[in-house]
Amino acid sequence: MAEQVSGTDVIVVGAGIVGVTAAYELASAGHSVRLIDKGRVAGLQSSRNWGFVRRQGCDPVEAELVQHASLTWDRLGEEIGPALTLVKKGLINLAPDEAGLSKYRDWLRASGGDTLFGSRMVGPDEIRDLLPHVTGEWAGGLLTPSDGHADPTAAGPAVAAAARARGVVVEEGVTALEVTTSGGRVTGVRTSAGRRAAGRVVVAAGAWSGKLLAPLGLKVPVRWIRATAARTTAVEHLTELAVHVPAVGFSQLADGSVIFGSAAWSDYDIGIDTLGNLRLFLPNFVRNRTMIRLHLNEVVVQDVLRRLPRRDRDAIRFDWPRMDDPPPNRTKIERAHRSLTALVPRWGSSRIARAWAGTVDVTPDALPVVAAPPQYGGLVVATGMSSHGFGIGPGVGVVAAELAQGKQPSIDLEPFRIERFAEGPVRAHHHL
Ligand SMILES: Cc1cc2nc3c(=O)[nH]c(=O)nc-3n(C[C@H](O)[C@H](O)[C@H](O)COP(=O)(O)OP(=O)(O)OC[C@H]3O[C@@H](n4cnc5c(N)ncnc54)[C@H](O)[C@@H]3O)c2cc1C
């Protein structure tokens, strides 16, 4: 039943890790806040990830942001407590050969990760000490002792609960259909449950943000990548480190289960949108082509069928099961499980308890968009987290809250402007 609801200071669209943190910060600063989500709190990417909270491997231009995010996780840990499930006992990448090690050294040099984050190279002896149950011949590794992991199914809801306790009104199952504006300022949001008034709107709608922003003439180009992960049955507790090797990445949770996924490549389902923004995406696709598997499957047919004339245009834009609940790549996750149990033979008896996938929104340069577009007073965009938004999401949420309050942001947002895509050559993806 549509209803006009009296206004709040700020509406946050999207209750993923970015949106819940922005709402929590705004409420903590004394603002009235409405947080709306078309599904449920952290129902999409923010509960479907591996849970890595990392600075290690960041793009050097993100160093300030990832550091800010890491400090934000620490603060949230103090304010929210164990419900956040944050374990900051280190993240380690292991390399089988000299080529891998030189990538790590290059990253240390470019990012300043040694002085900024305490990251350092480790040799085979230290790897054996840190991970006595891990097999394999490792040439060395890269360790950031104060990176870590959290349970993705728990962290977002924990922040949302803390936001509710500070007065945030959380509306689940309510879709934002349009950001309304008048005279160059936002006035609120038209939703599936009626109009919601507010002088400030934060768009943190993950993979869907572009569809909400396009009618405002704001273009946030993203590709939707299908990323698969799984959780094992509970096994012997062996490590608190988050571990990444070429074939698999994993972290063990307090209940003994292990979240893992294949680090080798991601799946991309070709759809109608694939043809859009080719100029922006091709350079990094060509550079990293071994890391993406293209699939020509039923997705392209669904795309065509969805665009046939029908009355409910809003549903076409925001109700798309293939994006919200894509099928996991079973072959890939079974292979990753074999890699996991070969790497840690003491987990040989583990079974895959659950496998799932999520749609990751990746921008052409794999950097987020965090901006207050000058075209619309009161509008803030915090999206395009490009596969590492669980770790940086809280930091982005804090900065989005600062922008929504008209405050000077804590970090330099120059690398995260929307206009960068229209301006010039796309920055090369950075990864370990
Ligand atoms: C398998 C997998 C593994 C990953 N591993 C990691 C990792 O280890 N570490 C890491 O840092 N990152 C990881 N990521 C990426 C990370 O999960 C995301 O970058 C991050 O969660 C994005 O957060 P978000 O808040 O921007 O988006 P989301 O979590 O997607 O939240 C957006 C929310 O907006 C809502 N929404 C959308 N449109 C509307 C609308 N019109 N109206 C109302 N609500 C709307 C959605 O329902 C959703 O809840 C992984 C992702 C996947 C899928």
From TrEMBL:
* Short name of one Pfam family: DAO
Q: Per UniProt, what is one GO molecular function of this protein? A: D-amino-acid dehydrogenase activity
Q: Which InterPro entries match?
A: FAD-dep_OxRdtase, FAD/NAD-bd_sf
**GO annotation, cellular component aspect:** cytoplasm; plasma membrane
Q: Which residues form the FAD dependent oxidoreductase domain?
A: 9-403
Q: What family, per the record?
A: Belongs to the DadA oxidoreductase family.
The name on file for this protein is FAD-binding oxidoreductase
Task: Look up and give the organism this protein is from.
Answer: Jiangella rhizosphaerae
